[in-house]
Amino acid sequence: MNHPPVTLHDKKFKIYIQERKILHSIEVVAARLSHEYRDKCPLFLSVLNGSFMFASDLMKEMSIDCEISFIRLSSYSDMGSTGQVKEIMGLKESIKYRHVVVVEDIVDTGHTVAALLPQLQSQGPASVEVAALLVKPEAHEHQLDIKYPVMEIGNDFVVGYGLDYNGLGRNLRDIYKVM
Ligand SMILES: O=P(O)(O)OC[C@H]1O[C@H](OP(=O)(O)OP(=O)(O)O)[C@H](O)[C@@H]1O
Ligand code: HPA
Questions:
Q1: Which of 158, 161, 166, 171 to probe ligand 2 with, by most ligand atoms within 8 A of CB?
Q2: Segment 154-164, tens digit of pLDDT
Q3: Counted domains in the chain
Q4: pTM score
């Protein structure tokens, strides 16, 4: 299939990871999660907005009982992290004694996950791990243990498959990187 570059606001992006590869990589991680969380009924905690598409495809591939809930955090403006993680919409249900899997579209600087994990840990869950569609190890500014990375990428700004550039690009089926 042909994937011409796309323009979003003032920037051009070129094809980087095709939908077929994304979905296959998610299947592999979902199989691992289904095995490792059998009999644990994990609670997936999807970090909005960016993770909506990943969370949906991940859930569809899970073969065990599991639940999902959503939390909305935001820290990005233009193409950079503000370093300030704001909680916009909090968690309503109790996570006490639950096996929680945070579902992130991307772990970039790591500010978001680093801010979120202690907040979750303080609520007495049985366990907390992170499943992230994309991980940018070169950009990390925190020591992080992402147990379920789907794909590692270099230090490029990417859009598509839920990820945006100033609000645009989330609807793209494939992942693109800035040119
Ligand atoms: O590792 P970090 O550098 O913290 O970056 C990762 C976070 O940045 C994005 O969220 P953003 O704040 O852009 O909100 P959005 O999901 O609504 O796009 C992304 O969805 C992650 O939550
Ligand atoms: O590379 C990125 N693209 C879109 N949103 C993001 N949030 C953190 N890193 C990124």
A1: 158
A2: 999 999 999 99
A3: 1
A4: 0.95
